[in-house]
Design brief:
The protein is α+β, with helices and mostly antiparallel strands. It has two domains: about 40 residues; about 130 residues, Rieske Iron-sulfur Protein. The strands form three sheets. It has a four-stranded antiparallel sheet, with no helix packed on it. It has a three-stranded antiparallel sheet with strand order 1-10-9, with no helix packed on it. A three-stranded antiparallel sheet has the order 2-3-4. The radius of gyration is 28 Å and the shape is elongated. The termini are far apart.
Length: about 180
């Protein structure tokens, strides 16, 4: 084979490789927007996806409200007295009794205890206000339903306890609402 034919073959191989690479980039450039537009947009992600909350600044006795799936949720950092009064309250004090332990949460290895509940009264959907008088945690201003610090209904027309959302503690400082616990 002569040198002219060898250099032609080398150029031809380079052109094949360069054309193939340019074609692959072009196909990727067209396919990427088509595939990415099929996924959920930011509004849809915010509507149903998990919400991560930094709880490091929430001191015992404090309450914050977050929105998940368009509804408010209370995150209350319980004091030792609130935990003790919730655990010692007699079953007869509640309309829809549930054990306090099933409604109080703590991060793995953490001593802090939390109440994470839906913030809509189970009577007509009003948003209760925080109460700081021992066992009573929330009062619904519309029709007078009273809930304890863990969201259990004590008095009034509300038929059931405030609902518990799915949540996990990602760490002692991070709470994720909308994500199930592993193995649950």
């Amino acid at each position: 084979m002569s040198e002219a034919h060898a250099s032609d073959a080398t150029r031809r191989d380079f052109l094949y490789i360069a054309t193939g690479a340019a074609g692959a980039v072009a196909v990727g450039g067209v396919a990427w927007p088509l595939v990415s537009q099929m996924g959920p947009n930011e509004r849809e992600k915010a509507a149903g996806g998990p919400v991560e909350i930094d709880i490091s600044a929430v001191e015992p006795g404090m309450l914050i409200t977050v929105i998940w799936r368009g509804k408010p949720y209370f995150i209350r950092h319980l004091t030792e007295d609130e935990v003790a009064s919730a655990k010692n309250a007699p079953e007869s004090d509640f309309r829809d009794f549930a054990a306090a332990d099933s409604r109080i949460a703590a991060a793995e290895g953490a001593a802090e205890e939390w109440a994470i509940v839906g913030a809509n009264c189970t009577h007509l959907g009003c948003v209760p206000t925080k109460v700081d008088t021992g066992l009573e945690g929330w009062l619904c201003p519309c029709h007078g339903s009273k809930f304890d610090v863990t969201g259990r209904v004590m008095k009034g027309p509300a038929p059931t306890n405030l609902p518990l959302p799915p949540f996990v503690f990602a760490s002692e400082e991070k709470l994720v609402i909308g994500q199930e616990k592993a193995g649950a």
